[in-house]
Write a structure and sequence with these properties.
heterodimer; A: ABC transporter involved in vitamin B12 uptake, BtuC; B: 353 residues; mainly alpha; ABC transporter involved in vitamin B12 uptake, BtuC; 2 strands
């Protein structure tokens, strides 16, 4: 094994790229769950965003359009979830599963013509002078705009939840929907908006995955990232900055395991590929073990349906 | 304007009408989907839903596809009733096939009628053990069983791939990642001459009967239903949640593992990386479509098996994309969950004030 082949700056760079789709999806789901709704369809919304973004980038070559299309596709699927759970009072767990199964099916149907195709979309920032600084130059100033957007989004979600009036209402709805309804807050409207935001973010994450991280369409390419994003929300204890940390930890695990495979470590590649899933389980166990803590962190009305009788 | 009014009691009539309604609505949207794909919609629906019933071989194939779906869905239904969400049946199916296949390969040159029962035991035990991981982590560490069981699907598939590429690889197979073909003692007996229908179909029927008795005539069934409807009351009544979590996950894991064993020693006849083909996920739809009731699951399994076989026929005859059937099955679950509203709510016309 030749460790000198690894360049720390390259590793850090690819870690950030691997973490960004997870961060988008986790931030979206975090807001959804803060409003008291559990949407298990992240994987489905993500893959629909992936094919939406890929197809758009394939046709237009534009990263911005691809990101918009991905977010739109995710939000569209989320709208279905909102209709089902908020207006037709369906079970959130079952509906979320349906969303994932349906999204995977639609994505592979739409993606048939794109199987194995690659993309050439280059949208890296290149600031003369700054990007050329050795090591940190590319790391800090050499990414595509979406990486910076994901960081700005983390800050905005934090600000929204903790410093804005609308965020306070959203949290109230998630903690006690009966009380929020009694005060006169539009519980359903708040939740539908949160669900749509979550879908757009998951779709954006999917688009980033298919257009930037691995610019190649493969059926089922999200490979459980939507579910990992759900785990990151638990890990983050519903706090945006910890979601950022969680996404980067998982990005790191992915990159380490990929690089070990590339270095030809004497372990079957399958065992290395298990790492992100096993780490997810480990993290869930560690975070959830403190029951009292876990109960305090979770929004009190998470997953409970709300039916206004008057 | 329309508004929803909660019913005092769930409508039993609607409870059984809505699944049929969901199938009809799915067929109607299927027409639109096929038209969108540029296929003759009526021809497609005929090929998917009617043709398999007319052809004798396709009719026996219903048993081949339906058996694993019913078996897995029966297991899942107990947990779903109690609010314990095992969505990793696909992984338990994979591990069951792997452990049963390992037994078959260990006795590759030994014949005996004891081999198949031993494999069934190994498959069920493997599936149950895989399901006990999320059960134990939930009981001991409060970890969410939905996420853990799902993560283990990916781990199980990678493990199967590593095994057939390594220890269980066919020594004469030119390094191809496949096991040897199982010999006759490790292959399931066929119950209908000239078809692929195997004894797994009988096992699925048996599971339906046992599940019915367990659910309606046994304390365990009462416990499951009580936990689903009133968890606090169940705790006050002295039922232990930890035991229920272990029982529900263990049971569904065992049945999924058994289904995996049937698949490996039945239609497939060896271990290959592509063995897990989504039965574990489709069974979730079957469980809901069947109203988590054993008899309903049997009917739902038949409907779902029909879409599989019809989908394959349509793929060949009409060049319909394979993924169209997944979309179809996803739509079915959506419609079912959506019109479920009629079970618990009445729709009332609100007069304008």
């Amino acid at each position: 094994m030749d460790l000198s082949a690894l360049n720390p700056a390259d590793l850090a760079f690819s870690l950030i790229v691997a973490a960004t789709p997870l961060l988008f999806a986790a931030l979206g789901e975090l807001v959804v769950e803060k409003s008291g709704v559990l949407n298990l369809g992240v994987e489905g919304m993500m893959i629909l965003g992936a094919i939406g973004g890929f197809a758009t980038a394939h046709g237009s070559g534009s990263l911005a359009l691809a990101a918009l299309a991905g977010a739109g596709a995710g939000a569209l699927l989320a709208a279905l979830f909102a209709l089902m759970t908020q207006y037709l009072m369906s079970n959130q767990v079952a509906t979320g599963l349906a969303l994932t199964l349906f999204g995977l099916g639609v994505a592979s149907l739409v993606g048939q013509g794109y199987a194995g195709q690659t993309l050439q979309v280059s949208a890296r920032l290149d600031i003369p002078g700054l990007t050329d600084i050795p090591v940190i130059g590319r790391l800090l100033f050499g990414h595509d705009p979406l990486v910076y957007l994901s960081l700005v989004a983390t800050a905005l979600v934090w600000w929204f939840l903790n410093r804005s009036r609308a965020g306070l209402i959203l949290r109230a709805v998630g903690e006690n929907h009966e009380a929020a309804h009694a005060i006169g807050y539009p519980v359903r409207l708040v939740r539908v908006s949160a669900i749509l935001f979550g879908g757009a973010m998951a779709g954006l994450g999917g688009a980033y995955l298919a257009v930037v991280q691995t610019p190649l369409w493969v059926e089922g390419m999200t490979a459980g990232r939507g579910w990992i994003a759900l785990a990151i929300v638990v890990f983050a204890a519903w706090r945006p900055w910890r979601a950022l940390l969680g996404a980067y930890v998982f990005g790191g695990v992915t990159i380490v395991q990929l690089n070990l495979q590339a270095l030809g470590v004497a372990i079957e590649s399958q065992y290395l590929s298990m790492a992100p899933y096993l780490v997810t389980i480990l993290v869930l166990v560690v975070i959830s073990a403190d029951r009292a803590r876990a109960r305090l962190d979770a929004p009190a009305c998470l997953g409970k349906p709300f039916y206004a009788s008057s | 304007m329309l508004e929803l009014v909660a019913r005092k009691e769930a409508s039993r009539f609607m409870l059984w009408l809505t699944p049929a309604l969901a199938v009809v609505l799915t067929m109607l949207s299927g027409l639109a989907l096929f038209a969108l794909l540029g296929k003759d919609p009526f021809e497609a629906v005929r090929v998917i839903f009617v043709e398999p019933l007319l052809d004798p071989f396709s009719r026996t194939e219903l048993l081949v596809k339906g058996a694993p779906l019913v078996l897995i869905a029966i297991g899942l239904s107990f947990g779903f009733r109690a609010g314990i969400w095992n969505i990793g049946a696909e992984g338990q199916f994979t591990i069951g096939a792997l452990t049963a296949g390992a037994v078959a390969l260990a006795f590759w040159n030994v014949e005996g009628i004891w081999l198949l029962p031993l494999m069934a035991l190994a498959g069920a035990a493997g599936g149950a053990a895989w399901a006990m991981i999320p059960a134990w982590l939930r009981i001991r560490f409060n970890a969410n069983e939905i996420l853990v069981s799902l993560m283990l699907v990916y781990v199980a598939e990678l493990l199967l791939s590593a095994m057939v590429g390594g220890p269980l690889r066919d020594p004469d197979g030119f390094n191809f990642p496949e096991s040897r073909m199982f010999h006759d003692s490790a292959t399931l007996p066929i119950i209908i001459e000239g078809s692929r229908a195997h004894v797994g179909a009988l096992a699925a029927l048996g599971a339906v009967v046992i599940a019915y008795v367990l659910l309606h005539r046994h304390l365990f069934g009462f416990e499951v239903r009580l936990f689903g409807q009133a968890p606090r009351a169940a705790r006050f009544a002295g039922f232990r949640e930890a035991r229920l979590v272990a029982a529900c996950l263990g049971l569904s894991g065992a049945l999924a593992g058994l289904a995996g064993m049937f698949e490996a020693s039945g239609p497939v006849g060896q271990l290959v990386p592509a063995l897990p083909s989504g039965y574990g996920f489709t069974a979730i739809i079957v469980a809901f479509l069947g109203r988590l009731h054993p008899v309903g699951i049997l009917l739902a399994g038949a409907v779902m098996a029909l879409t599989y076989i019809g989908g394959e026929t349509a793929q060949m005859a009409m060049n319909l994309p394979a993924a169209a059937i997944n979309v179809f099955q996803g739509m079915l679950l959506f419609f079912l969950l959506g019109i479920d509203v009629l079970v618990n709510y009445r729709i009332r016309l609100r007069r304008a004030l």
